[in-house]
Amino acid sequence: MNAAKGLKGVVAVETSISSVDGKNGILLYRGIEISEVMKIASFEKAAYFLWYGKWPDDHELRKLKNELSKHRVLSPEMKKIIDGLPENMDMMSVIRTAVSSEGTVDYNWKPTTGQAVRLTAQVPSIIAYRKRTLEGNAPVSPIPDLSHVENYLYMLYGSLPIKAHADALEAYMILTLEHGMNASTFAARVTASTESDLVSAATSAIGTMKGPLHGGAPSGVIDLLNEISEVNDIEKVLRHKLTRGEKLMGFGHRVYKTHDPRAIALKERLLQTAGEDPWLDLALETERMAVQLLNEFKPGRSLYTNVEFYAAAIMKAIQMEPALFTPTFTASRMVGWSAHVLEQAEDNTIFRPESVYVGPDRRVEEKMN
């Protein structure tokens, strides 16, 4: 019996939420290409679409925005738990612990979309509350009229974000709402398959996202952009790295063997803000030069930017420290995780894969002796 290590190539579920075609560079949200989603969707619209399988009308969108706004306010109990955590606890562990504390009897099986909205609203507030209290700054109360992404930036920094930054971060968060049967989504569905609650499934997913092989921050791209900024010569830096055989961080992807559709969509959104932020402009010009040089040094390899490249540029532009990259990724992916938990509950079968025993057979050894 041959084992598929890591379950690679093994179909575990049937889903109508998203489709990832790495060979052809296609990502679909409920049958619609991500580039088309980006043209018409705000974070709230895209989240509604993934949860309900249809676009919201004006009334439904207002209702969702009101629900997100209402649940942004953390309870005194959750704040007390966050305040009591060790100062040297990383942000992903803080999110995991805070979300886990939400698991009251209100979340007992079966999961609901209302629960998904509540958790999605809370994660940005958890991140912002923890960041500001650790820095010795007073926590910032949410502003009801701000969008989900605008409010996240406002609660982080205590001032209203400029439009270019809010638009760029919203684009990134829409693109990372969902991405097929990745490790954290699988973890959420495995937990949900036992008829556990949504909070438990989300906690499993957060713990999985924390691992650097899954939710690792694109710090290498930040280092590259910093170096280019200091030298002030994009071609010189990139050509030097390629001549030395170094990898250009932010190029190539383990799933997409051609263009990463999320990077293309994000680039198109950033082009609309060209000239409004120097870091975003630098990223756009770096990509142009890098693709040109990669074709020269590695012809036929089809190495293009991945979503982490532009994500790093966005984080740099809004002055977000690397420690918040994966937590911000988590804040968006809560939508995808909860959509999968809701889908799992509709037609549930507990996951129980087989394993291949490769240890010794003591019975054979005893007979031989």
Structure described in brief:
The chain has helices at residues 34-40, 43-52, 58-71, 76-83, 91-100, 113-134, 148-157, 163-175, 183-193, 198-209, 212-215, 219-231, 234-243, 261-271, 278-297, 307-317, 325-346, 362-368; strands spanning 18-21, 26-29, 32-33. With 369 residues, the protein is mainly alpha-helical. A 3-stranded antiparallel beta sheet has the order 1-2-3.
Please explain how this structure is put together.
By secondary structure, this protein is mainly α. The chain has 2 domains: about 200 residues, Citrate Synthase, domain 1 (Orthogonal Bundle); about 100 residues, Cytochrome p450-Terp, domain 2, CATH 1.10.230.10. The chain has a 3-stranded antiparallel sheet with strand order 1-2-3. The longest helix is centred in the middle third of the chain and has 22 residues. The radius of gyration is 22 Å and the shape is globular. The two termini are about 30 Å apart. The model has no long low-confidence stretch (mean pLDDT about 90).
